[in-house]
Design brief:
Strands 2-1-3-5-4 form a 5-stranded mixed beta sheet, with helices on both faces. By secondary structure, the protein is α/β, with parallel strands linked by helices. It folds into 2 domains: about 1-265, no CATH class; about 285-405, 3-Layer(aba) Sandwich (D-Maltodextrin-Binding Protein, domain 2), CATH 3.40.190. Helix content is about 60%, strand content about 10%. The protein is built from 17 helices and 5 strands.
Length: about 400
């Protein structure tokens, strides 16, 4: 976890530097600085910077790719085109959706290039060298999973109402304050300098894939994070143009987002989607795993399967697996959360050496672990498992139960 958060710190610095460079190249250093401030105070972005998720590093990678496109002088600078290709390769290793975020800016830059075929080849080769080997092994499953997550059955969890999604983006993504401020600033700029709005072409292309997410199945707003620097840059330009050379109106405009971020971060304001205060309460995953691994059923060099029967935000297979990796414990971790076939679930549970579930506290999702009660009942009464004592009380008020497969 610490390594992942360190990655996020590096991504914050890279993203801020990239946003400033883009703003300075497109307009001026002041617009770039405002865009950096906006980037740092958008609820979705400062919220995700504290989560163990790939979206923030992905956002930084997209911003770096846009910087390299701008620096390539319409793809005429071969060195920067190569760096763009390498960045795209690493972006693909972060997430298969990376091309969605850079496709239109790249197509626009390619259309302006005088040597399109050569530029395309110069970008494609390093990209393939970085990412192709991994995708040859994992590409099919990765793409299937991406399609399923975006449009398949699992996407139902997030709903499909486009209007509700826009409300989430407004409230939890960019904030109502920035949404209204962007509209007012755009009107002011349109009245004063209508032609100036044409300089928003590149960031508009960058933000355009929002339509894909608006009409996609999965409505988790974190997937649009790589588009938000485009919004921040547009707002940086609009604020810079609307207030002119005066600094005090700008300071007043930007004071509230900063105060809001600090208040949310320190628990004075309620959580805003992914943006929330730090919770110092520890969950006992490590203690539970050490209790299991101190068990005499383990032999030297042996690796056993642990099955998680609960799937909640702070108690699921992912954070148990992270704890097992961090502590170098000989456990493979599986979950009952996504399988709907009861027969398949029973065979998987019976093949495991340990089963962990949580009862009470935060209830199970209605979409996942649909056979939760039946599986727990089977583990308790099948005679194949015995419960290890004592059970553990959890921060949400629930109780963790650990079962060991009986050896015969």
């Amino acid at each position: 976890m610490a390594c992942r958060l360190f990655d996020n710190v590096a991504a914050i610095l890279i993203l801020c530097a990239a946003v400033w460079v883009i703003g300075e190249r497109l307009w001026n250093s002041r617009a770039g600085l405002i865009a950096v401030f906006v980037t740092g105070t958008l609820p979705l972005l400062y919220g995700l910077s504290r989560w163990y998720l790939v979206e923030y590093p992905l956002t930084a990678a997209v911003a770096v790719a846009i910087v390299l496109l701008l620096a390539s002088r319409d793809l005429e600078d071969g060195r920067r085109v190569v760096l763009f290709g390498i960045t795209c390769g690493f972006g693909l290793l972060l997430k298969v959706s990376f091309p969605v975020f850079v496709a239109l800016p790249f197509a626009y830059t390619l259309w302006r290039s005088k040597h399109r075929a050569h530029a395309l080849l110069t970008a494609a080769v390093p990209c393939l060298l970085v990412a192709l080997l991994w995708y040859l092994v994992n590409g099919r499953r990765t793409i299937q999973n991406a399609i399923e997550a975006g449009y398949g059955e699992s996407a139902i969890v997030q709903g499909s109402d486009a209007l509700l999604y826009l409300q989430r983006i407004l409230h939890n993504g960019i904030s109502v304050y920035y949404g209204v401020a962007a509209l007012v600033a755009a009107i002011v700029v349109a009245i004063r300098k209508l032609r100036a709005l044409t300089s928003l072409a590149l960031v508009s292309l960058w933000a355009a894939p929002f339509v894909v997410f608006l009409f996609g199945g999965n409505k988790d707003i974190r997937y649009v994070a790589p588009l938000l620097p485009a919004f921040a840059l547009g707002l940086g330009f609009l604020f810079d143009t609307a207030v002119g050379s005066r600094d005090w109106p700008l300071a007043l405009i930007l004071a509230f987002p900063l105060i809001s971020m600090l208040m949310v971060s320190f628990g004075r304001f309620p959580a805003v989607g992914y943006a929330r205060s730090y919770d110092p309460v520890d969950w006992p995953q490590q203690a539970i795993l050490h209790t299991i691994c101190d068990n005499p059923v383990f032999k030297p060099g042996e690796r056993k399967l642990l099955m998680l029967g609960t799937d909640r935000g702070s108690f699921n297979a992912n954070n148990f697996e992270l704890a097992a990796v961090r502590e170098h414990l000989p456990l493979a971790v599986g979950t009952t959360a996504h399988e709907k076939d009861m027969g398949v679930l029973l065979r998987a549970v019976d093949a495991s050496s340990f089963f962990i579930c949580k009862e009470g506290g935060e209830p199970e999702s209605t979409f996942f672990n649909q056979h939760f009660g039946e599986i727990v009942d089977h583990v308790r009464h099948s005679g194949l498992f015995e419960e290890l004592h004592p059970s553990r009380k959890l921060p949400d008020g629930g109780t963790a139960h650990v079962f060991r497969r009986v050896t015969r």
